[in-house]
Amino acid sequence: MQTAPDLDQLTTPLAWTTADARIAGCNIAFARWLGVGQRRLLGLPLGALAPEAGLDPALARDAEATDAPLRLRRLGLRFADGAERFCDAWLSRREDGWLLEAHPVDEFPDDDPARLPSALSAALRGLAHELRNPLAGLKGAAQLLGRRLDPNDADGHALTALIDAETARLAALLDRLLSPAPPRPHAPLNVHGVLERVLRLAEADAGWAVRLVRDYDPSLPDVEGDADRLVQGVWNLVRNAIEAGASQVTLRTRVEHGVRIGEDVHPLALRLEIADDGRGVPPELAERLFLPLVSGRAEGTGLGLALAQQVAREHRGALSYRSRPGHTVFTVLLPLPGPADA
User: Fold this and answer.
1) In the sheet where 264-276 sits, what is the strand order?
2) Extended strands (E) in the chain
3) How many C-alpha atoms does 202 have within 13 Å on its Cβ side?
4) Which residues neighbour 201 within 8 Å (Cβ) at sequence distance 6 or greater?
5) Does one domain contain both 137 and 199?
6) CB contact set of 230 (below 8 Å; sequence gap of 6+)
7) Closest Cα partner for 311 from 203, 236, 258, 249?
8) Whether 263 and 326 share a structural domain
9) Is residue 212 part of a domain?
């Protein structure tokens, strides 16, 4: 199976192909959604998953030599004689084939045949056990260390609190991976609280090597969202800047009026910018930067920006960027409640 372990953290179903449009791999979410083991999909023509030939015209675009992703609305897919699943999909060109990103349009009950095959489910339960134990050990060690610290050691207590909070967040991500559930309802939150959590992670990761600058608009209203998911998305963007050799990273928040996000125009939106002075985005990756498995570093997984984009979409927002050597800005736009919603 051509995959990376971290790719299975994505809850969005993904499948990718060889140059001749045969499936080279998929993540767990894609296999579970179709109700089939990952390995059974290998080598299958991608078009064979669409009963009504919904993919064949899109795959025929190969002759057009275009890199623009194609959106397919309510695409029906199924494996063999299984139940048909419907999704809104993005079909993107890769150097070595195609990437299909599926956004299911229906929710399935617990007894739906799309649940994981028993053997794979058992393996994942074993993985959960192996990962939860060290996470619990880290959490306990942080709490014990916190009790031993001098009460006046503010920095020490802040770091142990950070370890405690991050192990809890990782445990929640693991639960979400192994037992997918409907997303938590969004609630009003202060985005600057989210950014402060990210900056604590950055300070622990980069130390004094990177200058972290806050440029906040204190008049921002609350955002409707999931704080843990927003932390994950923004942290991926900040970490990406650090790994690009930045010596300074700036987090900037502003209010925008009359903003178009996708097909909708919002009276108010949050504009969050993560700016850095690193190497910038390599020109050869410019058109494919947000695709999973695309990375400008040999040791990179190519998942951080894909995860950040997914988090933005979960919040009805969008992620974009502009870049040149020494100046790169990733911009997250998120709708804000208007006067009628307040």
Assistant:
1) 211-215, 248-261, 264-276, 327-335, 318-324
2) 14-17, 23-26, 70-77, 85-94, 97-104, 187-189, 211-215, 223-225, 248-261, 264-276, 318-324, 327-335
3) 31
4) 162, 166, 231, 235, 238
5) no
6) 189, 191, 194, 223, 311, 315
7) 236
8) yes
9) yes
How many angstroms separate the Cα of 165 from the Cα of each of 48, 138, 248?
A: 45, 11, 25
pTM, whole model, 2 decimals? 0.54
**Do 174 and 191 fall within a single domain?**
no
Calculate what percentage of the chain has a pLDDT beyond 70.
72
294 close to 288: Cβ distance less than 8 angstroms: yes
Q: From CA 316, how far away is CA 231, in angstroms rounded?
A: 16
CA dist 168 and 174 (Å) reads: 10
Asked, for residue 196, whether it belongs to a domain, the answer is yes
* Separation CA 224–CA 216 (nearest Å): 18
Domain final position from 178, 205, 230: 178
In a domain, 342, yes or no: no
> Which residue has tokens 């053997």?
119
Secondary structure in 3-state letters for 114-172: CCCCHHHHHHHHHHHHHHHHHHHHHHHHHHHHHHHCCCCCHHHHHHHHHHHHHHHHHHH
Range of the domain at 27: 5-104
Q: What is the pLDDT of residue 111?
A: 39
> Tokens representing 86?
């419907």
Residues 111-168 pLDDT 10s:
343 344 444 455 555 555 566 657 666 777 777 777 788 888 887 777 787 787 777 7
